[in-house]
Amino acid sequence: MFFAFSRVVFLLLLLSAGVLFAFVNNDDAFVRQLVERLQAYSEQRPIEKVYLHTDRDIYLTGETIWIKGYLFNGNSHVADTVSRVLYVELVDPAARKIRQRLQLRVTDSYAPGQLSLPDSISAGTYQLRAYTSYMRNEPDDYFYTKTLTILQPDASASTGSPQQKPLPRQLDVQFLPEGGQLVAGLDGRVAFKAIGSGGRSVPVSGFVLNAKKDTITGFFSLHTGMGYFAIKPEAGQTYTAFVQHANGSLDAYPIPVVKPQGIVMQVDNLTSKEYIRVYLRHNKVVETESSATAMTLVAQTRGILVHAVTVPFGKTASVVQLPKAEFPEGIAQLTLFDEANKPVGERLVFVNRNEQLTVGITSDKTTYKNREKVELTVTTTDAAGKPVAANLSLAAVDARLSPEADSNSATITSHLLLSSDLMGTIEQPGYYFDSRQANRTQHLDLLMMTQGWRRFAWADVLAGTIPARKYPLEQGLSLTGRVVRPNGKDIGGKVKLTFILARRDSLGKEGQRDFLVGESDELGNYAAYDLDFSDTTTVLIQGTKGKANRDLVITLDQLLNPAITVTRVPYNPFEFRRDELAEFVKRTSEYLEIERQIRRNGEVLLQSVTVKAKRVQERDSRTIYGTPDASVKFDQNNAAGRLTILDVIQGRIAGVQITGSGFSARVQIRGAANFSGPVEPLFLLDGMPVDLQTVLSISVQDVEKVDVLKGASAAIYGSRGSGGVISVLTKRGSPEYDLSKDAAPGTLVAKLPGYAAVRQFYAPRYAVKNEQSDRRPDYRTTLFWEPLVQTGADGKATVSFYTSDSKTNLRIRAEGATASGRPGVGTGTVRVE
Questions:
Q1: Are 47 and 77 a contacting pair, CB within 8 Å?
Q2: How far is CA 68 from CA 111, 266, 705, 760, in A?
Q3: How far, in Å, are 125, 161, 167, 599 from residue 95 at the CA level?
């Protein structure tokens, strides 16, 4: 982890006298404590970040959203391979419901997948959000979110369902003193941000009056409703800002209260390329210049401490210069602590190290014909032009069918370096990373003055209070829940649990089954981690307590519908004219109907085929042995009145000796002994090794049969089978058993989604003659999607696809990052004539 505790000399400018002095960090007890506790907090509460690249932002019902998820270590931004499950949800913000959910498998920090939109989904504006289980320990504000527009074929001009259009509301203007407070007699700056109906920024202008109705200053917004003005507040005065509307009316907003004493912090991150200058002014009465009367300035980036500087109160004005070269790229948080070590001021700054990835896209020709092959070369270089290896995803779309609403929309760069560390909605985030925008640096500094950062509270850090992690890092899928009494009360102790996961094969038939055993904690909570299953899987959970007591109710967290909080305003960025979307809806509807007809024709052909063959006897996947030495099938006759499995087999298998009865019974297979005495047999429950107590806890009504292996037959299990093998096969563990019809007391049966199967993007290859595809009209909106484009050490990779029947421009976009976390975006255009 990057960690640099500042011990260098900083220049402090005594503004009143215009003289430079040098102060050295005195490494006092508070600074040492702060350094230690911030480092401990960051190590015990690491963060993760997620980004989703989709092929486009506007879809028709019935289409597929192609997705690639990227995972990063939130502190260092290196590719994060810790979490292996990525949750992707399509959220309806109006109904506050999750309409669709995916679980994507993460491999090497990447998670490709797709989301198929049903024909029944309503048109409107939706949020696509993504997160890991571990990210749920943070507020929902830090989940990845993206606004999507979904249209219906019969609503070509509609960009949102009526119920999703926000109601008009009064203009919301916030006034935010730089550093956090206004102090009497000290020059300060006040930033502001104006938001109108629908969550969009609004340009505003106005003026500030004091309590005497004297005009203090005027103001106007500079970018997306943001601006600032300078003010030197007077003691005992109150100030009010008046914002003027287009119709001439005025709205009044109070300016934060002026404090009689305090510290004002102003930051200059624009005039110097080498330093961040922090200007500190105070009007406190200071009796001594001891360390007890010093303030402390702390600079940290994503929980990584960069500088900690103590500044004496001896002079009323000073400036601290922080070298930008020592900061990681991204948002830095500057916090000022007073003489009582309480945080009294805070300011965000953005440090641009020019470490972003440059992605180039070039085609082998300038123009193409319809259904002609396009060869693209993708290059990835650093700021110096040197090639670097990177992993990217690339989409090629018909620009006419998929108009681009906002060229300044979010990218992997803007999300990783900006949005993921801020709360609230950031309008046009891509603007701040577009080198063609002359004023982007100034406007980005305005954003830092008006946007909130709240990854942690300093009070928790200084107190050494590290919030407990409720949600774990997932190396695989999880099953969590609780066992309670029917009346909802605690179960009063641990409960033995059996899990059966019945998977389905490619034909939809249940095949392999996984069998797990465990127990809950004293409160009835249970968890099974690191599971691996795909598509829809039937899960059975059975609990037993005491002597097969089934008076239990089992709940499963994965069946609960979590409450949805819309943390970022999902305003609709797609405000097109009717004619702009008409062709997209028309062409896409025609193409989808052709695809449906092809599927229907294929189903008719399949139904007319009759296959005759001998049925193959499927081998039970729970057993690795062949024919056992002995076997007892359980039925109503031999199981009636028996308490345990051993009670049933007692006296029915030669050589199996059972002493005692009930739950105190013991078993030995004749001849299984060594110099130390008798050797207990190996017990298997549906193929899984278990202990004798687990076997005794299984109800005899659940058992299909018991197989016994002796001597050489048990050698397949090695030394574990030296005492023979007793294999218990349950009815529920059988591939032929239908778990969904099981309604036994103390059991829970549910169908749960596993990892979503990843489909390969279909793109026709017109170089190969295909009578069916040659006849079919081709007006696809997305012509090509490749989620895994890996450039080599030379920084190059090639991809190819074929153009469609449209004479149009193809918009190419590639996004991705290096393994060290340098993000980059590249765009290109291909002309089809």
A1: no
A2: 6, 41, 47, 12
A3: 11, 11, 15, 33
- Upper half-sphere CA count for residue 693 (Cβ side, 13 Å): 9
* Segment (H or E) for 596: helix 578-607
Q: Cα angle vertex 373, ends 367, 378, to 5°? A: 80
pLDDT of residue 221: 96
pLDDT at 641 over 90: no
What's the half-sphere exposure (Cβ side, CA atoms, 13 Å) at 626?
3
Q: Which tokens is 4 given?
A: 């640099």
Which residue bears the tokens 């093998």? 725
CATH code of domain 630-734: 2.170.130.10
* Sheet of strand 525-531: strand arrangement: 525-531, 477-484, 553-556
Q: Cβ neighbours of residue 110 under 8 Å, at least 6 residues apart?
A: 68, 69, 70, 71, 391, 787, 788
Percent of the chain with pLDDT over 70: 85
User: Coil, helix or strand for 52?
Assistant: strand
Query: What distance in Å separates the CA atoms of residue 319 and residue 282, rounded to the nearest whole number?
Result: 12
Please answer whether residues 321 and 11 qualify as being in contact, where contact means their C-beta atoms are separated by less than 8 angstroms. yes
Would you say residue 817 has pLDDT above 70? yes
Q: Which tokens sit at 615?
A: 């049925």
Residues in the chain: 833
Q: How far is it, in rounded angstroms, from Cα 251 to Cα 205?
A: 11
Are 807 and 833 contacting, i.e. CB atoms less than 8 angstroms apart? Answer: yes
DSSP string across 301-337:
ETTEEEEEEEEESSSSEEEEEEEGGGSPSEEEEEEEE
Strand partners, 31: none
Cα angle value 186/187/188 (rounded, 5°): 110
Helix runs in 211-251, H state only:
none
Average pLDDT over the chain, rounded to an integer: 85
**Contact predicate 256/182, CB 8 Å:** yes
Asked: is 356-401+786-833 a CATH 2.60.40.1930 domain? The reply is yes
Q: Smallest Cα–Cα separation from 685: which of 735, 643, 730, 745?
A: 730
3-state secondary structure of 444: helix
Please state, in angstroms and rounded to a whole number, the distance separating the CA atoms of residues 201 and 221.
Answer: 10
pLDDT digits (tens, 9 = 90+) for 734-792: 777 766 665 566 788 888 889 999 999 988 888 776 655 567 889 999 999 999 999 99
